[in-house]
Amino acid sequence: MSFDAPAMDYAGLSPVIALTTGLVVIVLASVFDSVKRFGPFLALLTFAVTAGCLIWQWSADIDLVSGSLRLDGLAATLSILVVIAAAVSVLLAIGDPSETQAGRSDWLALLTGSVLGMVILAQATSMLTFFVGLELLSIPLYALCGTNLRRRESLESGLKYLIVGSVGSATLLYGLAMIYGASGATGFQAISDGLQAGDGMLSDSLTLVGVGLVAVGLAFKVSIAPFHQWTPDVYQGAPTPVTAFMAVATKAAAFAVFIRFFLVALGPLADQWDVMLAALAALSIVVGNVGALAQTSLKRMLGYSGIAQAGYMLAGIVTATQAGVDALVFYLAAYVAMNVGAFAVVVARERQTGFSDDISTLRGLGREKPLLAWPLTISMLALAGLPPTVGFIGKLYLIEALVDDDWTWLAVMIAIGTMISLGYYLRVVATVWMSPAEESEAAAASIDTAALPPQIAGAQADPFTDSRADRRWYLVAPALIAMAAALFFGVIPQPLVDFAQHAGNALSVWIS
Amino acid sequence: MDIEWYLILSALLFTVGFIGVLVRRNPVVILLCLELMLSAGALALLAFSRMLGNQDGQVFVLIVLVVAACEVVVGLGLVVAMYRRRLPLDVDEMKELKG
Amino acid sequence: MLSSIIWTPLLFGLIGLLVPRRFAAWVAALGAVITLGLSIGVLAGFDPDGGMQFVTDVSWIPGLGVDYSLGIDGVSIFLVMLTAIAWIPAIGFSALRGTERPALFYLMLLAGETSTLGAFLAQDLLLFVLFFDLMIVPFYFLFGIWGRDRGGESDPEGSPGNGPVTVQSATLKMIVFTLIGSLLMLVGAIAAAVIAADGGELTFSIQTIVARGLPEGSQNWIFWFFAAAFLVKMPAFPLHGWMPDSYRAAPLPALAVFSAVLSKVGAYGFLRVVLPMMPDAADLFQTTMLVLAIASILYGSAMAFTKTDLRLVLGFSSVAQLGFITAGIFAFNESGAEGAVLQMVNHGLVVVPAFLIVAMISERTGSEELGPMGGLAKKAPVFAVIFLIVSMATLAIPASANFIGEFFILNGLFQVDAAWAIVASVGVALAAFYALRMYQLTMHNPLPDGSDSKEISLRDALVVIPMVAIVVVLAFCPQLIIHGSEPAVDSSIQVVKEVAE
Amino acid sequence: MTATWAWLVLLLPLLGSMTIGLTFRVLPARTAGLIGVTAIVAAFVCGILALIGLQGEPSESRHVASSLWEYASVGGLSIDLGIYVDPLSIFMVLVVTGVSSLIHIYSYSYMKSDQGYHRFFSYLNFFVFSMLVLVLAGNFIMLIVGWALVGFASYALISYWYRRNTATKAGMKAFVINVIGDIGLYLAAILIFKNIGSVDYGTVFEKAPEVFTTNEWEIVAICLCLLVGAFAKSAQMPFHTWLADAMEGPTPVSSLIHAATMVTAGVYLIARCHSLFELAPTAADVSAWVGLVTLLIAGTIAIAVTDLKRIIAYSTMSQIGYMFVGVSIGAYSAGMFHLMTHAFFKALLFMAAGSFISAMANMQDIDRMKGFRKAMPFTAAMMIIGALALSGFPGTSGWFSKDEIIDFAHFRGGMYDWMWVGMLVGAFMTAVYSFRIIFRILPGPPCEEAEYLEEHGHVIHGEPKNPATGELEDTEVGYPGEEHHIAEQAGGMKFAMAVLGVLALIAGVLQIPGLDDVVTKFLEPTFENSVFSHMHPTTSESWIGLGEGALISLAGIATAWLLYIKRPDLPVRFRERFRWIHTLTVNKWYGDEIIDFLIVNPVKAIGRFCNRAFERFVIDGATTGVAGLTRSAGAAVRDMQSGLLRGYAVLMLFGILAIVIYFLIRSI
Q1: Which of A186, A452, C261, C364 has its CA 20 to 30 A from that of A79?
Q2: Which of C403, C409, C417, C451 to probe by mutation at the D interface, max D CB count within 10 Å?
Q3: How many C-beta atoms surround the C-beta of residue B2 within 10 A?
Q4: Phi, psi torsion values for D64, nearest 5 degrees
């Protein structure tokens, strides 16, 4: 009996392999104390190798594992974004209480696992890999959210995320089952063929309910209203490095599969679902923006802002055109730069002020700590979509795609949402630059004493506060690089446009 | 027997699970209910698989079972962590984060 | 050449960050002067009949069809000159007094100049929108960081006056209002290009879009998207809600250029973009726009003579003046449009010294409220005369170039319908009242206790007198501007004129 | 050559003004005064040279247009920086520069102790420049420029003592009313351009008869718009209220601007545009009737009020009313002649009044003045000459000029006979109020101030008070110092008054009916094309008219003598008997109040409404409303975010149900 080994394209699988290897090494390293402290370097190395593999396979356009995965432009671009976000959060986690309490290697292993899930998700072209990737992404994240064991909020957010997330997963699964039933297939291309071949399948209630449930599951992952409610709570409760990772990477990976599933598998049904997605997008834009208005917690505000931003991005899928996908990917890339800048500053500021992410901790920042103030300012301007930042070009791209496909009303919604969003983004800028610093000086002074080594300041001092956090390279460098990127791509956006179009071109077979 | 009955059963399971999530306060019970919801999906997959006569659905179900187990493990881990910090095991008490 | 005009200010602003703090101001001033020099160079080589000149056109974001396309014609050249001129006193005034955090201040101020120049020179619709949006950002910081909170002031007649204003709320209001318009304009701009391309190659070149033309139905809504942006920026009644608070909170040198130049971008946009691109809609909504313009004139004037805060008097007088300019543009004839262009320049030139004078007045009296002021002319005849000239130019006394501008606008309006001109001319009388009131209540009447009548200092004179001199020179030969801009203005309104007929 | 002289006429006062203005820190006060005087006298000389040049031309081409450069030109509307010299403008140039020269000389002494000496002469020279721009303008835009600049100069000089609240208020009033007049001219110019396609005098007057038919609405509209400008500038009803308040300015200013020159600009305008007005007889009649009403009402007020300068101001209004009637009914040269003689005697009256007021330590009330005959004999004599000329005493210049107008109205007959009657009544009142002044302040026992002057040889030192309100004032800036000057002691003042006195007496010889008619002949080239140019009463008719005038004048003087010398109780009894008449007239027929009620208060109310109600509730309300709406939406979103898991699950359930139902509906 001859064994017919399936053909494996190891080059195509190299990113997944690199991540898996890295994961194993990190887990093993936790056994040896002497290697333990190099955990972050191992993780960074893993991500660097993964990124290297992705770049190596940049122009690949191949099906892998008998059509369960597909490494193409879309997968490559979004995986790169995920890896970048992961690398940044490794840096941000250095010295973070969550990392220390959970055990550095375990924390990093969870992170790497989640990244692996995301990379798989970005490549998924079958329901199986879709579901596996999604769960591989989510489950470590649930755990990561709860890693700051000392803080009640951290545990609360982990459990909340887990429960609500599982409801979402179950809904998604149920929807997948229905689509499977309707199309008789699990591969995306096969689903599409099945739906087109089947008699009346395109408007069958089974199919459509399945589409709806899948949409709910995905909307949940990318935090689209009304499935958004976990977002602010989890963003606020989770350790900030985790939030930073989650905010950016989850969106990137989930949008990758969102694009693929809806445009490839459900492409024939585009006329059925576009209005629903448009309505969800509009709702998110409104809910996210108004919800963020009066928040005092920065992370919570960024959570709501994430809901709104997800709404903008979803608009790219609504168009079901290549331009829409390009715009979405462009916006995601921009979103990475904008959010990394913001979260890096939040992390630094948290460490300085005894883990408060209240907006008032930013008072007088512009005068005293320009290295934190500028990245935060540029991030906020970019999120608000003001020139000369990449945020403006991102919105421009989205609006252009929308108007081009006759979705002008949705473009106007984006415009309206942006106006509302100024109310909270600029509040941060105003606090940084336009509020007197006296109070924050006093606050900083009191914290500085608290931040002294325990033998002087007493037992109650928090061992994780770090009065010099604004000068730690691993916090400041990501912030500055993100700021530079936000400005650079705001002035010279073409490289990023090419990047985004690389993703869009991968789908050119399926969409116009 | 028609496939409808299987689907109705799975829908019932899904509903029961959802209602459980809605009404129960103990996180452990809620985890159980989540299992129910996932099982509902699994049942539907199985039914369709049989109806369609291909194996994809059944493979899918296997994976779903594994995933469900993982989910519960992480969930229980968090519950234990809360218990060790002597936090109430009641989802209604988990409202530090809101607004 | 045009690129160097645009980017020189920003470059010097950045250099200012690197040099020691006390040189920052002089680097900035040097940058502004070089910009003016370059602008004069362009003016020297400018041919009024040559259409679009000094064209730069390189692909910027090919993926989106956006080009970095610059050009200058008779309409923009004088606004560029105005910009280049107006920034010098604003910088000089601050430089000679010193500001907090100078490097940042001048960086923002010069970034503002760069973006304003960009808006005047952009020939690509999206580039225009980008610069239009960009303008507000540095001013947001300027107003926010160097502005100050204002307490509530009671009206001398006993009724509640101006409420308290915080810098934060004022700047937020300003930027939200402005962006309401400009984001809609972004949508409108993209829609215009997409619809004009009609499946062909997408380009945002203003000239191409104009040449391709837009269908009448689309013009109607795109028109309002653009109009919203421009009317808010000016500001025009009833979209001026952001103006009073921002004006009260802003630092005066920045406010001077803001009021003088940025408000003109809106009017310029009508002339450059709206009329050529959407002639049918412009014709359709001519009456509406004229009603808005006239309402701005009357409302602005009425507010200007009731307000007691000097900044608000000037602010609302700008509303009225911009009303005249809008009315002139929407008269759709040479006289109105040319008058509008002339008036844009004149108003800009007058407003800069006016706001700087307000700064000097408040130094002398410790207040910007007209109620308790007076008598400042006592020991300051030169100061008084400078302010008198500025006030007279503000009220467009005949013999000032402002008069010629206003007269042409009225003449243009009259050709549309006598009623417009007659109602608008009420604004002329009211202008006399509020401008003179402003002058009298500060300079004349007895000097109250606590005020110090001090002659204008040399450093202030150095800044203000050149501006006043330009106003005076223009009074003798407004034809300089008219001659240079007439062919371009004619071509801007050519299409709409044909439609209107 | 004529044009060059004319440009020089314009240039010299401007130069004078600029020189004084720019060098005020270094130049001694007297030098500045000398520069001012010299500039105007030189302009007068240039004016004469221009006249000589012009007279050298043949009568049919006796007009010169010249332009420096293109001022502004758009879409066919081409405006040159140009002048137009013809007999009419030269006539005005000579009157303006001539009287100005004398008043400058007068001011040189009168303002001696004033601290703002430089400012005064700079303004005064600037005024003369503006007035010359007005009369020499070559097109309607330049006319508007001059028109507005004299308004500005008038404002600056009314508010000259700017520390006085009354002075600044008066300045504001004058300026705003004048701007309203300017707007009339704007609209007229626009209408003219619309119909004729040009604003140049030459073209407009030439083409007007071709373009318009008589009394076509457009030409009537043009003329009415022009009249708005003319009425405002010349203080005719209902734009007259500013003139009396304008007496807040220093007396030389009242004399020059508010008596001799600027306020007569309206007359000049109508004469200049006579070819338009002849096409619009309706508008001309409006103008004539307004002039008539003004002259009568102003006459009654002048009899009632007691402020010396205001009496003369109302008399000015009244006399300008005559001129308006004159130029409106076609008596162009008579109107212009009256303009000239009025400039002489009214300037003289003001100068004399200024002298008295100085002697009274700034008191202007004639009730307080008495017995100055001996203390100030020269001034008294000049005052009497002025009053005689004003009341049209036979032989004086006023007799010839005023009665020529009155006579022309009678000559035209018909409706104009009513005007004739009205003007005769007016002439009677003129004589009464002129001599009311004389009989009140000259004869009788000297009052305290007059006695002091007589005894000590210099003026009494009074507290610096605001004559209008009686408030004490500081003297630091611009206020006349304690050392007041009177004509009795200052050579310059004496000289100016003497010259004007002589002119007021004898200028009539220029225009003796049937004998010389110098003015008529000189102005003939300008009014050649007029339908009235060859219509005038015969010599004998004219002399009959002059006889009537003489009688009326004498009767008026006699009445004044009766009322104020012989039976001083009569006016008192009259006042008590007919209190309402007195109240009405002494309150100036409530002109200010009516205008306040009709225009000023509504405008202010609208302003207040905008500020307090509209801005707050509508504009701010809309802003805060929208912001509040957004904010409450935010609050709703946050409230929903209760932190309770089951709440989240419920919302998810609703979301799922909504989507499922949506698709189920679609699938059906």
Answers
A1: A186
A2: C403
A3: 8
A4: -125, 130
Q: Does B81 touch chain A (CB under 8 A)?
A: yes
The rounded distance, in Å, linking the Cα atoms of A260 and B60 is: 19
What is the distance in angstroms between the Cα of A366 and the nearest Cα belonging to chain D? 27
Contact A205 D640 (CB under 8 A): no
At residue D597, what are phi and psi to the nearest 5 degrees? -65, -40
The H or E element spanning position C375 is none
- The Cα-based distances of C103 to C98, C100, C258, D147 in angstroms read 11, 9, 19, 50
Domain residue spans of chain A: 269-512
Cα distances (angstroms) measured from residue A471 to each of A476, A480, A483:
7, 12, 16
CB atoms within 10 A of CB B86: 7
* CB-based contact A117:A253 (threshold 8 Å): yes
Nearest beta carbon to residue A128 from set B34, B60, B91: B60
Q: Which of B15, B31, B95, B97 to mutate to test the interface with D (most CBs of D within 10 A)?
A: B95
Distance CA(A361)–CA(A353), nearest Å, equals 7
Q: Does B97 contact D642 at a Cβ distance shorter than 8 Å? A: no
| pLDDT per residue of chain C (501 residues) written in tens, 0 to 9 | 889 999 999 999 999 989 888 888 899 999 999 999 999 999 998 888 888 888 989 989 888 889 999 999 888 999 999 999 999 999 999 988 888 888 899 999 999 999 999 999 999 999 999 999 999 999 999 998 898 888 776 555 544 456 788 888 889 889 988 888 888 999 999 999 988 888 788 889 888 898 888 888 888 899 999 999 999 988 888 888 888 888 888 999 999 999 999 989 999 999 989 988 999 998 899 999 999 999 999 999 988 888 888 888 899 999 999 999 999 999 888 888 999 999 999 999 999 999 999 988 888 888 788 877 877 877 888 888 899 999 999 888 888 889 999 999 999 999 888 889 999 988 888 888 888 888 888 888 777 777 777 888 888 888 899 999 999 998 888 888 888 888 888 888 888 888 887
Closest CA relative to residue C353, chosen from C220, C270, C471, C480: C471
Sorted by where each starts, the structural domains of chain B and their CATH numbers stand as 3-87 (1.10.287.3510)
Contact D650 B18 (CB under 8 A): no
Q: Does A104 touch chain C (CB under 8 A)?
A: no
Residue of A nearest to B10 (CA): A174
**Nearest C-alpha of chain D: how many angstroms from C31?**
33
Domain ranges for chain C: 2-500
Asked if A403 lies within 8 A of C171 by C-beta distance, the reply is no
Q: Which residue, chain included where needed, has tokens 């509640």?
A: C160
Q: What are D139's strand-pairing partners? A: D200
**Residue D277, min C-alpha distance to chain C (Å):** 21
Cβ contacts (< 8 Å) between C443 and chain D: which residues? 162
φ/ψ bin of D65: left (φ > 0), alpha (ψ from -120 to 50), beta (otherwise):
beta
Nearest to C375 among D163, D193, D615 (CB): D163
Residue A497: its chain C contacts at CB < 8 A? 61-64
The whole-angstrom separation of Cα D132 and Cα D150 is 9
How many angstroms separate the CA atoms of D368 and D356, rounded? 11
Q: Which is it for strands C53-61 and C66-72: parallel, antiparallel or unpaired?
A: antiparallel
Question: Which of B21, B30, B95 has its CB closest to that of D644?
Answer: B95
Searching chain A, which residue's CA lies closest to the CA of residue C147? A434
Q: Which chains touch C (3 or more CB pairs under 8 A)?
A: A, D
Q: pTM of the prediction?
A: 0.90
Closest by CA position to B21, among listed B73, B70, B66, B75: B75
Asked if A233 lies within 8 A of D649 by C-beta distance, the reply is no
Backbone angles phi, psi at C165, to 5 degrees: -130, 130
Kindly give the residue spans of alpha helices, DSSP state H, lying in D507-538. 518-527
